[in-house]
TrEMBL record:
GO molecular function, one term: pyridoxal phosphate binding
Protein name: 8-amino-7-oxononanoate synthase
Source organism per UniProt: Marinobacter nanhaiticus D15-8W
Gene: bioF
Pathway annotation from the record: Cofactor biosynthesis; biotin biosynthesis
Residues binding pyridoxal 5'-phosphate: G105, Y106, S175, H203, T232
């Protein structure tokens, strides 16, 4: 038998051991964690909708009519009119003919990729794609070619030298870096080399593009350029679940083929109705997005002035690059001592030598919250000379 205990021990020795904290409040800047108050800068609740009174009221008001449980999978008897209404709402929001609602983004990616490519096909995948896209590629049994992050020359070279059915998959906004994929170039390459482009915009929806319609809309692209777009509802939308949007034919195909759609219980319908409210709130959230942009600009300016290394991002994902896992843990701990919560992100979530603190901003952060973060970062720098700069 494998020595599982020794593997755990090795993780600890390498600074790669992971543990969980217990949150005792809703997702919001001021949280209570393991019994202590902290100011959080690590949630993906970018617009502050996870605890929104209107979305909560939508779920609560729906419960007496929908009941609680999903009951069965969508193809047995679980497909509630609430789910269907959400799909229609999401199709309109993304400007697509149709949308299909999944229980999580992880499952959407596994299901969509394994349905659209199989043995003998080739999938081209950005090196920094989210784990769920990578696992979808593995599940599909297709040949996988990974290209260096956003390297369009490398992608073109790979596309040009590959025959057969080709799928290109990418994050829209990269989850651990915060930068945006060069979608116009990707769409042009896919057209030229007859490849199907799939964009997972988990971190783009709500944050970028007009009315928060995501990175595809941000570039002014449409369904001819990016035929399939995936979004999650657990981040900026503040609820739960995910969706795939595309042509009616494509959605019909996925209903037949996507195993993570077919073989799982439908999400509680009341949550789907809360998501309908969230979509409306996201569209109306220009003021929140403007406030976010101001926080992000100020953070970038002042954190860099303190000597921290940031990454080329203008989204709410603002990682501080540290390098080795111990430095990331040390800075995280120094901030925690000052009541600030930012989790260290270490391999294998990011490449070796690129451990970081993934600072994320929410529209519910105030300028005063940002003051506290910057002050703590300044003090931590004194405490950890050589580490943080
Ligand atoms: C979070 C995330 C997912 C997974 O979505 P869940 O709904 O949390 O399962 C998929 N793709 C990307 C890029 C993500 O960041």
């Amino acid at each position: 038998m494998r020595d599982f205990r020794a593997e755990l021990e090795k993780r600890r020795e390498q600074g790669l051991y992971r543990w969980r904290r217990q949150v005792e409040t809703p997702q919001q800047p001021d949280m209570v964690v393991d019994g202590r108050p902290v100011l959080s800068f690590c949630s993906n609740d970018y617009l502050g909708l996870a605890n929104d009174p209107d979305a909560i009221a939508a779920a609560r008001d729906a419960l007496p009519e929908t009941g609680l449980g999903g009951g069965a999978s969508h193809l047995i008897c679980g497909h509630h009119s609430a789910h269907h209404r959400l799909e229609e709402t999401l199709a309109r929001f993304t400007g697509r003919e149709s949308a299909l609602f999944f229980s999580t983004g992880y499952m959407a990616n596994m299901g969509v990729i394994s349905a659209l490519a199989g043995r003998g096909d080739t999938i081209f995948s950005d090196r920094l794609n989210h784990a769920s896209l990578i696992d979808g590629c593995i599940l599909s049994r297709a040949t996988v070619k990974r290209y260096p992050h956003c390297d369009m020359t490398a992608l073109e070279e790979q596309l040009a030298t590959t025959d057969g059915h080709k799928l290109v998959v990418t994050d829209g906004v990269f989850s651990m870096d915060g930068d945006v994929a060069p979608l116009p170039e990707m769409a042009a390459l896919c057209r030229k080399h007859d490849a199907l482009l799939v964009v997972d915009d988990a971190h783009g929806f709500g944050c970028v593009g007009p009315e928060g319609r995501g990175s595809v809309a941000h570039f002014g692209l449409g369904s001819e350029d990016v035929p399939i777009v995936i979004g999650t509802l657990g981040k900026a939308f503040g609820t739960s679940g995910a969706f795939v949007a595309g042509s009616a034919m494509m959605v019909d195909y996925l209903v037949q083929k996507a195993r993570t759609y077919i073989y799982t219980t439908a999400m509680p319908p009341a949550v789907a109705l809360a998501s309908c409210t969230s979509v409306r709130l996201v569209k109306q959230a220009d003021d929140r997005r403007e406030h976010l942009a101001r926080l992000i600009n100020r953070f970038r300016r002042e954190a860099q002035a303190l000597g921290y290394t940031l990454m080329p991002s203008d989204t709410p994902i603002q990682p501080i690059l540290l390098g080795d896992a111990w430095s990331a843990l040390a800075l995280s701990k120094a901030l925690e001592g000052r009541g600030i919560w930012v989790t260290a992100i270490r391999p294998p979530t990011v490449p070796e030598g690129e451990s970081r603190l993934r600072v994320t901003f929410s529209a519910s952060h105030t300028e005063a919250h940002l003051d506290k973060l910057l002050t703590a970062l300044g003090e931590a720098q004194q405490e950890l000379p050589g580490h943080a700069a």
